[in-house]
């Protein structure tokens, strides 16, 4: 799978803490928003994009992001491989979700907030796909 982790860093001194990611190129970004799930039991997904890309970073707390590369958006195979990634707010690490993938997102700590970056503006294209949480049998 082509998902990429851009590892962030953290610097701390007597003044406080700075988290940063100097390797992450933001030139493709057109949209920025955050996600906060109301419950640790809630899983937001499966949803994704055939064309759009996303980048996720934990701003507060911790998230588990499950990712599937879709073989056919009209009727995907039910046994596609699921990859899991853990994002924590300790550093500004980005998870890249390339086009052609869907995600399921679960907060792992109360009060968690996920930063989401997209390469298309809201409404620029119609490219959102959703599937039931129990559709894929490979978990």
What does this structure look like?
- This protein is mainly β and 139 residues long.
- The protein has one domain (25-130): Jelly Rolls (Sandwich).
- It has no helices and twelve strands.
- A five-stranded antiparallel beta sheet has the order 1-9-6-11-4, with no helix packed on it. Strands 8-7-10-5-12 form a five-stranded antiparallel beta sheet, with no helix packed on it. It has a two-stranded antiparallel sheet with strand order 2-3.
- Strand 2 (9-13) and strand 3 (16-20) form a beta hairpin.
- The radius of gyration is 15 Å and the shape is globular.
- The protein starts with a strand and ends in a 9-residue tail after the last strand.
- The relative contact order is 0.34.
- The mean pLDDT is 94.
- How does the overall form come out from the CA principal axes? globular
Unreliable stretches (pLDDT < 50, length at least 5) are none
State the fourth-level CATH superfamily: Jelly Rolls
- Which CATH class applies here? Mainly Beta
Quick check: average pLDDT?
Answer: 94
**Which CATH-level-2 architecture?**
Sandwich
The number of domains:
1
Give the tally of β-strands: 12
* Gyration radius, in Å: 15 Å
How do the strands line up in the largest sheet? 1-9-6-11-4
DSSP strand content: over 45%
What letter string, H or E per element, gives the SSE order? EEEEEEEEEEEE
Q: Look up the CATH topology.
A: Jelly Rolls
What is the percent of helical residues? under 10%
Please work out how many helical segments DSSP would assign.
0
Distance between the termini: 17 Å
Structural class: mainly beta
Major β-sheet, in short? 5 strands, antiparallel
